[in-house]
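Backbone shapes recur. Consider a single case.
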Amino acid sequence: MRTTVPAYQVDPDSSWNSKYWQELGSPAGGLFSAPEDFAVLCALMLGSGKWGDVRLLSPATVRMMTSNRLNDLPDLPEPVRRTQPWGLGWRLNHLGMADSWSDLLDRKVFGHTGSAGNVVWMDPRTQGFCIIFTNYLRARAPWRLVHLSNAVAAAFV
């Protein structure tokens, strides 16, 4: 397996997998998961807050998390509210933008990306989801993740 890290993280004490990052608890990073575990979260969100027989979130909470909450900020410029929609913790697909997950997915698709090459999105219409976990820096070639995401989205269309 090839690992890609920035030059400043070649030192094992500063890599993404170092104790520092694993214990940081920053909302901007530090989440570690396996695709199998994250799939449970995707199923929970697509199930309106319920997974199997367990309800963790109310349907109203899931709606708030997955609808554009930027409209609640009247001082935010209208083009930002329209083209960069965010719910509570989840970004909504933003068609026609370079960092959209796919033009095959509609605006109700929600998810998240990570700086280390991760993409997760959920489609309420198809009840499908995509989990791509890599360690390739997104900034080096963001189009690669979009191409992978397009391939997954095409399977649901």
Notes: The mean pLDDT is 82. The CA atoms of residues 113 and 119 lie 4 Å apart. The chain has one domain: 34-156.
